[in-house]
């Protein structure tokens, strides 16, 4: 047996050894990318949200502290509306997508004819770029589009869809759900397949019917993947940008002015980067709260 | 030999204007240079000019990067704000000149090109790219609006074609009545379409003809005025066209040409560039002067793309050489007009291009005179304000809402209030 130096012995006792250095080395690119691409821009946005850049000389910035935030909540003609629109959209879309994904997952774990084929069909929309899906749906929902042609064939009057303040948001919910349902379904199928068969068999032997098994066995054991789907879906929909940019440009009457589109408009169309930074910080706070909730939900189930 | 010629030319320019020579980059460079040009819309707009230039100037090559118009402003904003020096020239939409120049996104070209351009370029086009008495871009194209009609449909409905004579132009009110009559008689889908009906470019002359203001006023052109009586009257009339089914609602404006070509509407209010596009399609059509408001003053929009020089470019002198050739020589002007459907801003070739358009189709007699009259007499520029981009963004939203059925008066009041708040941030 050879003598080992005290530092090496301490590392070995802590279970670090050479693996410790290798671990850091392997994680370094990811940590570096995280710092450069996420943390640093977030800090820049935070600092710049307390300043206002001169419109005429963007390099000249004056400290205005909370003025940008006060402006957003008291004077901005569109910020509160975009918050309202985004929250409504998130609540409805997450509910619709999660329920639809769960029902489809329950259907596709059953044995049946060509189940893999049907499952693939539902998943296909997620393989199409969101921008392409939005363009296709935008064309279908035009005044002279295929959806209205179908409705008229059925004797139903043509609908304005994206052109109507009453229908535009729901038309975007439909588009987003068509894209997203297949993706979230895959997580729930994996969760359903993780439920041990013997638990279901025991329930069946105790005389539990399909509904009772679903509510007493399947749903409680599916809590963890369901929590992930709900939280991740909430974040994804909160950051929704493409449908507003391609289908509606935030209209009509600001009914589809999602927060990310509002930020984009401020930064790139209005040229008001300071205000956009303040909005980004507010979005970050909401996102962090949602992620914290996700960790709490996942931890409570371990 | 050519290299020496180019160098000598650049050096001559630099010597003639010593103060500017110190500011302009690339003066005196002798090596081959590749200029990067951020362009827009279609590669063919500037493709022939770039090819012709490159053939004659192998030491100054030009690479074109084409960006769709819808993304142009965002891309330019992002790249100029980061002081991107990877491109040398950028396409300039004239009404955005003030906003871009005020923020140092464009190089002042007046001292080096101003005198030459005054001799060969449409003065109205030069005015559109001038801000604070400084010239920030070289106008390449110009535009005006016309009314295109389908002669077969008009004849079938027994309606006389509107006049191409600007002094006998039809009114919007008379046109609306005729469009309705033709639509009903022939059971057409629509009566009139506007090819850029979502933009301020096309709506501004209608609103102003009805007596409305230019939209932005005051000493710094940062005071909105979009909810006066004339604005409300004109925009209510415009929204009414869509509410009555006379104009196509819910159809993208890029599809309006197709609607006209398919015979779904007898009238298409559009830019003069559509003449060459429709000629390519082999469609029989007639051209009339852009309508005016009943009892109002006739106005037409004008201006089209210009080219500016990136203040961070390392090859400004070479970019200036190209622009000078494009705007002050007949060869450059014709090369620019070769594939572009727009009217050239270069006066050496403007009427030649209009005459070629006129003679390429039957019943277009008077087109050359009409274009010449409109770009010099009824042309109204969009507001030369540093807040134009914000104004245009808000107008677009409000206009789309009105098209989709929102009450025009209420929406314009809202737009006025929102513009006041948004423009108050410019300081």
Keywords, separated by commas or semicolons:
A: 302 residues, mainly alpha, MetI-like fold, two-stranded antiparallel sheet, 73% helix, flat, B: 427 residues, alpha/beta, D-Maltodextrin-Binding Protein, domain 2, 2 domains, five-stranded mixed β-sheet, 19 helices, globular, disordered N terminus
Write up this protein.
By secondary structure, chain A is mostly helical. Chain A contains 14 helices and 2 strands. Chain A has 2 domains: 19-63, no CATH class; 67-299, MetI-like (MetI-like fold), CATH 1.10.3720. Chain A has a two-stranded antiparallel ribbon with strand order 1-2. In chain A, helix 4 (79-108) packs across helix 8 (168-194) and helix 11 runs antiparallel to helix 14. Chain B is of the alpha/beta class. In chain B, 48% of the residues lie in helices and 14% in strands. Chain B is built from 19 helices and 17 strands. Chain B has helices spanning 2-16, 18-23, 43-56, 69-81, 97-102, 110-120, 123-128, 151-157, 172-186, 200-209, 229-243, 256-261, 274-281, 316-328, 330-337, 350-359, 367-378, 388-403, 408-423; strands at 33-40, 60-67, 89-92, 130-131, 134-135, 138-139, 141-142, 145-149, 192-194, 216-217, 223-224, 267-271, 286-289, 300-301, 306-309, 343-344, 379-380. The radius of gyration of chain B is 22 Å and the shape is globular. The interface between A and B is medium-sized, with 34 and 35 residues.
Short recap of the structure:
The complex is a heterodimer of chains A (302) and B (427). With 302 residues, chain A is an all-alpha fold. Chain A contains 14 helices and two strands; from the N terminus they run ααββαααααααααααα.
């Amino acid at each position: 047996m050879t003598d080992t130096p005290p530092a090496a012995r301490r590392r070995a006792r802590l279970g670090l050894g050479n693996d410790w250095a290798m671990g850091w080395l392997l994680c370094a690119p990811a940590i570096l990318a995280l710092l450069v691409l996420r943390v640093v821009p977030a800090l820049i946005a935070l600092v710049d949200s307390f300043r206002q850049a001169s419109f005429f000389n963007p390099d000249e910035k004056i400290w205005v502290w909370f003025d940008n935030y006060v402006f957003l909540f008291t004077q901005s003609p569109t910020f509160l509306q975009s918050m309202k629109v985004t929250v409504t959209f998130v609540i409805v879309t997450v509910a619709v997508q999660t329920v639809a994904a769960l029902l489809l997952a329950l259907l596709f774990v059953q044995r049946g004819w060509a189940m893999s084929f049907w499952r693939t069909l539902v998943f296909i929309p997620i393989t199409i770029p969101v921008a392409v899906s939005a363009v296709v749906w935008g064309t279908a929902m035009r005044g002279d589009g295929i959806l209205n042609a179908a409705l008229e064939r059925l004797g139903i009057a043509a609908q304005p869809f994206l052109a109507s303040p009453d229908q535009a948001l729901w038309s975007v919910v439909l588009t987003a759900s068509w894209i997203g349902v297949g993706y979230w379904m895959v997580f729930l199928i994996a969760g359903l397949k993780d439920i041990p068969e013997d638990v279901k068999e025991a329930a069946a032997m105790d005389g539990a019917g399909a509904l009772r098994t679903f509510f007493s066995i399947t749903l409680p054991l599916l809590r963890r993947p369901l929590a992930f789907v709900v939280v991740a879906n909430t974040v994804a929909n909160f950051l929704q940008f493409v449908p507003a940019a391609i289908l509606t440009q935030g209209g009509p009457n600001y009914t589809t002015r999602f927060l990310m589109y509002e930020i984009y408009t401020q930064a790139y169309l209005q040229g008001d980067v300071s205000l956009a930074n303040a909005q980004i910080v507010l979005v970050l706070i909401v996102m962090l709260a949602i992620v914290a909730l996700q960790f709490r939900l996942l931890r409570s189930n371990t | 030999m050519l290299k020496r010629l180019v160098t000598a030319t650049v050096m001559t320019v630099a010597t003639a204007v010593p103060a500017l020579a110190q500011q302009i980059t690339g003066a005196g460079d002798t090596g081959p240079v590749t200029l990067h040009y951020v362009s827009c819309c279609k590669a063919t707009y500037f493709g022939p000019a770039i090819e012709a230039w490159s053939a004659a100037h192998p030491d100054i090559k030009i690479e074109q990067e084409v960006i769709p118009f819808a993304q142009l402003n965002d891309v330019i904003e992002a790249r100029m704000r980061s002081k991107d020096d990877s491109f040398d020239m950028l396409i300039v939409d004239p009404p955005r000149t003030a906003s871009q120049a005020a923020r140092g996104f464009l190089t002042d070209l007046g001292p080096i090109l101003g005198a030459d351009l005054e001799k060969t370029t449409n003065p109205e086009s030069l005015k559109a790219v001038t801000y604070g008495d400084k010239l920030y871009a070289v106008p390449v194209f110009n535009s005006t609006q016309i009314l295109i009609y389908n002669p077969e449909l008009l004849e079938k409905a027994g309606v006389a074609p509107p006049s191409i004579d600007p002094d006998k132009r039809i009114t919007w009110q008379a046109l609306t009545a005729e469009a309705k009559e033709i639509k009903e008689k022939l059971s057409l889908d629509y009566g009139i379409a506007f090819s850029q009906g979502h933009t301020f470019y096309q709506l501004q002359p209608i609103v102003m003809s009805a007596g409305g203001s230019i939209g932005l006023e005051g000493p710094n052109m940062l005071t909105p005025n979009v909810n006066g009586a004339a604005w409300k009257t004109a925009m209510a009339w415009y929204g009414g066209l869509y509410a009555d089914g006379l104009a196509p609602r819910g159809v993208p404006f890029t599809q309006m040409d197709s609607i006209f070509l398919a015979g779904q509407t007898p009238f298409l209010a559009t830019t003069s560039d559509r003449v060459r596009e429709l000629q390519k399609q082999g469609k029989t059509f007639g051209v009339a002067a852009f309508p005016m408001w009943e009892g109002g003053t006739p106005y037409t929009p004008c201006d089209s793309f210009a080219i500016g020089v990136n203040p961070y470019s390392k090859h400004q002198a070479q970019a200036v050489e190209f622009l000078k050739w494009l705007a002050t020589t007949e060869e450059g002007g014709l090369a620019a007009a070769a594939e572009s459907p727009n009217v050239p801003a270069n006066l050496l070739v403007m009427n030649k291009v209009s005459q070629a358009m006129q003679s390429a189709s039957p019943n277009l007699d008077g087109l050359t005179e009409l274009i010449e009259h409109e770009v010099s007499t009824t042309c109204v520029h969009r507001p030369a304000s540093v807040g134009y981009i914000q104004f245009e963004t808000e107008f677009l939203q409000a206009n789309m809402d009105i098209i989709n059925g929102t009450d025009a008066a209420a929406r314009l009041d809202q737009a006025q209030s929102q513009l006041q708040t948004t423009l108050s941030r410019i300081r």
